[in-house]
Structure formats: C-alpha cells, structure tokens
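sanity check this chain:
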Amino acid sequence: MTRPLIAVAAVALTTLLSACSTMVPMSMATPQAPAAVSAPAGNKVTMMAVGAGDLTYECRAKADMPGAFAWVFTGPDALLLDKNKATVGKYYGGPTWESTDGSKVSGKQLAVAPGVAGAIPLQLVQASPAMGNGAMTGVTYIQRLNTIGGVAPAEVCNQAVVGSKKLVKYQADYYFYKAI
C-alpha cells in the first residue's frame, strides 16, 4: 500500500469511527434492580445519568438517646454526567435533580435496597411534578443504582465534634422514568 493510500484509509477509518460513536444512542433498557427499588409497571426509562460528587454528613446528638451521637446525612452535591462524561445537570438537597436546560424535579424516597459493601443503598424515588420545561418534564420515578462509596464517615462522632461536617465521595447511576 502506498503512503497516500494509507493516509486516506486512516482518515476514512477515523471519520467512520467518530461518526459511529456519535450515532449510537444510549440504551434505554430497564436496568436490573431488586424488586423493592424497581419502578412500577407503566413507566419507562427515558434517560440515565451518572451522579458523581459528595454527600455531606454532620455529627449530631441522637434525639432519643442522651449521650449518643451519630453521623447524619444532610445532603448531596453532585454533577450529573452523560455517557461521554459531559455535565448534563446537578443533584442537590431536596432531593433535587436539575438539568442544564433549567428543568428540575424533586421527589420522595419510596424504598431502598442494600448496595454493595461500603456503598450507600440503592433507592427508588417518586418524583414530584417538574419545574420548568425540558428533560425533567414528565419524570415519574428516579432510581439510584450501581452505587459506589458515600457511606457515613468512620471517624468518631462524639460531643467533642458535634456540629462538624464531613464530605464523602460517591457515585451512582440515576435512571429517570416517565409514564408510558
């Protein structure tokens, strides 16, 4: 093969591969999940994002146990990323998932199931009606799967550190469902 032909073949292959990578849509198949955190029938996955960021915990006195203390979850602060690791939104206290298009949805936890050791639980949230128009419009359920990290700090929580906060790294896949 001559040099010009090799160069043309290389350019053609690069173009073909880059075109294919942008044409392949992300699978919207319903993920495997424990029954407790599965969305009800009549709902279909319409988008998925990876949440990556921090969960905040605060050392607090236990209300019903004098002299006892525990790390209490106070909220998330994470980016929502697409399959190419581009930011498509954010996830923060409420809980609230907000798209870069300005639409957002909050929700109420319905169920949890154990995650892998050292990770926060899997979760199913029932969404409230979305605010704004965009990607979050019509979302009915949000499922948190494939969790990594995020569990309460292992450091001692006692009277000496009451009120202190700790950030814990975590990651999870969020599946957004809409009624069909």
Remarks:
- Residues 1-27 have pLDDT under 50 and may be disordered.
- Strands lie at 43-61, 69-81, 87-92, 96-99, 104-113, 122-127, 139-149, 165-179.
- The CA atoms of residues 107 and 128 lie 5 Å apart.
